[in-house]
Structure formats: structure tokens, C-alpha cells
Amino acid sequence: MKTLEVSVVTPDGPVFEGTANMVSAKAKSGELGVMPGHIPLVAPLTISAVRVHQDGRTQYVAVSGGFIEVRPEKVTVLAQSAELASEIEMERAQAAKERAERRLAATSQNDIDHQRAELALRRAVNRIDVASRR
Ligand code: ATP
């Protein structure tokens, strides 16, 4: 079976390098399923899990948005932050979620702090979701 090279990279360095039969990701325009030979594209991602499907197992990587670049034999994800399920500290994510919820309750909707808290909440919920899949 043909495979894809997969790299997930952040400003701090690579988070995942490997091969896969398929990669799925949530682009802002919708769900993306990438198999070897896919047409080239670049798409912005939502705060979500990138799923790397390998023989018999799926690795989940939490990404805080960023971009996916698809080429026929390679998928590169560039994100401000990304964590493998096994690297996520559940207590930290839980604390971030609670902090964000408190900020949301204490600020009004068009406040910049409200918008920041919404993003922080989405990152935390995504990490909790990905960590629960390890
Ligand atoms: P926090 O408020 O806990 O810092 P955050 O969403 O503001 O969360 P980011 O700015 O997205 O954090 O990430 C900062 C760095 O910390 C990145 O390297 C990211 O991978 C890492 N990180 C954030 N939360 C966690 C977590 N729960 N477990 C492991 N690493 C984390």
C-alpha cells in the first residue's frame, strides 16, 4: 500500500514525523481526508485533532489551528502549537479550560479578552478531547 510522509511542525520544532496511509484534518472549509496521490493544496485548519492513520492504529495530534500543506507524497502541518495525545498534560488543560470559562463569564462579547478566552477554551477542550484518546 502507498504511504504518505507526515510532518507536524511548530516554532519549537517538529512534533510528529512519520508515514501514514491517510491523514484526516479539520480545515476551516470542512473535513479533509488525504490519501497518497492527493492533489496539492494549502488550507487553514481549525483548533482540532489531526488524525494520522497508520497500519492498524490512529495517532491523534492536537493542533491550535495553523495550516496544512498537501502534496501527492507528503503532508505538512504548520501550527503555533501541537501536541501528541501522549504529551498532553490533562491537569494543565483542565486548568486552562476553567480559567477561560471564568474569563468568558467576566467579560462582554466584543471585548478582546472575551475573544482570547474563547480561543483558549477551544484549545483546552481540544487537548482534553485528544488526551482522552491515548
Ligand atoms: P496554557 O494556558 O496552559 O499555557 P495555552 O492554550 O495558552 O495553554 P499555548 O499558548 O497554545 O497554550 O501553548 C504554549 C506551549 O505549551 C506550547 O508548546 C504547547 O504545546 C504547550 N501546551 C499547552 N497546553 C498544554 C498541555 N495541556 N499539555 C502539554 N503541553 C501544553
TrEMBL record:
Coiled-coil ranges per UniProt: 83-134
Where does the ATP synthase F1 complex delta/epsilon subunit N-terminal domain lie? Answer: 4-82
Regarding the membrane, this protein is recorded as:
Peripheral membrane protein
Which keywords fit this entry according to its UniProt record?
ATP synthesis, Cell membrane, CF(1), Coiled coil, Hydrogen ion transport, Ion transport, Membrane, Transport
Q: Where in the cell is it found?
A: Cell membrane
Pfam families documented for this protein: ATP-synt_DE, ATP-synt_DE_N
What residues does the ATP synthase epsilon subunit C-terminal domain cover?
87-131
Membrane listed as a keyword: yes
Provide the primary localization: membrane
Of which family is this protein a member?
Answer: Belongs to the ATPase epsilon chain family.
Q: What does this protein do?
A: Produces ATP from ADP in the presence of a proton gradient across the membrane.
Give the multimer and partner information. Answer: F-type ATPases have 2 components, CF(1) - the catalytic core - and CF(0) - the membrane proton channel. CF(1) has five subunits: alpha(3), beta(3), gamma(1), delta(1), epsilon(1). CF(0) has three main subunits: a, b and c.
Protein name per its UniProtKB record: ATP synthase epsilon chain
